Amino acid sequence: xxxxxxxxxxxxxxxxxxxxxxxxxxxxxxxxxxxxxxxxxxxxxxxxxxxxxxxxxxxxxxxxxxxxxxxxxxxxxxxxxxxxxxxxxxxxxxxxxxxxxxxxxxxxxxxxxxxxxxxxxxxxxxxxxxxxxxxxxxxxxxxxxxxxxxxxxxxxxxxxxxxxxxxxxxxxxxxxxxxxxxxxxxxxxxxxxxxxxxxxxxxxxxxxxxxxxxxxxxxxxxxxxxxxxxxxxxxxxxxxxxxxxxxxxxxxxxxxxxxxxxxxxxxxxxxxxxxxxxxxxxxxxxxxxxxxxxxxxxxxxxxxxxxxxxxxxxxxxxxxxxxxxxxxxxxxxxxxxxxxxxxxxxxxxxxxxxxxxxxxxxxxxxxxxxxxxxxxxxxxxxxxxxxxxxxxxxxxxxxxxxxxxxxxxxxxxxxxxxxxxxxxxxxxxxxxxxxxxxxxxxxxxxxxxxxxxxxxxxxxxxxxxxxxxxxxxxxxxxxxxxxxxxxxxxxxxxxxx
Length: 497
Fold this sequence. Notes:
Elements: H1 3-37, H2 41-55, H3 57-65, H4 71-80, H5 95-103, E1 110-119, E2 123-130, E3 134-141, H6 145-163, H7 174-187, H8 191-205, E4 212-213, E5 226-230, E6 235-236, H9 237-242, H10 249-268, E7 272-273, E8 281-284, E9 288-291, E10 297-298, H11 304-318, H12 324-335, H13 337-350, H14 355-364, H15 366-369, H16 374-377, H17 382-390, H18 402-420, H19 424-445, H20 455-472, H21 477-490
Parallel strand pairs: 4-9
Antiparallel strand pairs: 1-2, 2-3, 3-5, 6-8, 7-10, 8-9
């Protein structure tokens, strides 16, 4: 087929793909809307989960990473007995041909078994042998992913915006989290980066955790479409989850150690392992823990102060002690750190009252903003839940920090992994102990993050942000008038974005 004809076929295929997906999503949206308004909450989620699992790719990843924290999704997982961590429906791939095309002459070093041994949302895994003796696995990217992922992201965000006001039974801010999710997911299909991150994690973790195994990644044999790694033994947490027999005492203790490990990695190795779902963690022998899949590793320097603050806040939230003022403060610090820093610099420079508590008071009233919210605090997404109460439809025009989202993702995902195993008490014990340990360690081992904003820069950031808030919330004008006037009087001419 000529290049021109191939390109034309691709355009026709893409148009057909968009139309089919759009029709399916439209039907789903209508069904969910009707189900939602009849107040059949579980049925609403069941239909949503069925569609996302069967649609595969981005949709299944969305189900894994975003919706798994919702109790109704957990109920669907238990009742449907689907393993969408390691046994996503497979795609027909000629793995041997793909390896030959990717590696050229080096492909002769690899003998690959064509049987799929694990299938994830973006790739399928095959057993192989390297240089006639070394057992390996070859992770092959699904051929349809790169051609469909950006289209699916666009469709998902578009329909999420339409769905949010209609689906009254789903108390998740689908539109906002789908936008955040799309930015994070695109980084996970960069296999050259993933191979590099895997080796970086292996090198660092070997210096700090003797019982943690990271498979060797053959960077010279990994490309944009395949990753070659040593084969590991043991059993994955996904296999344990779907096993019919209950966990024994040793397995329960190992899961406790898994959670402590994941939560401590930002401090011990300076990397965030942001996707610790059951398919990415293995138990080898009686005590060894192995991690696989490094596409979601965040290589940016960890801000220990923000991570520690978030971890401490999650503990308070899980204990039902988090107030809206505290939650909003942590939410700003985690998801909008530059604005958070600018607010504090500006407040000190101009002698203004604390601004973040003022927003909580304007949304909920003085009393309610300073009292724990019992219906929102005692669950894994407490900070996000309280933020949605105080900051509905992103009233405060926050732009999330992609790096700091990985902190919350790592914490929330490992908590959900523990809850899938019904290990509530072990999860809380691990959460509290690591938070306490980090409080003791971080003060000694890390210097406090230096502020890089000048007072003028900080005031400009706050002024522009406050203008956006007032445009979205005219009813706040009288309460924020004095702060706005003070900023306008002391800030150079600023162009509003």
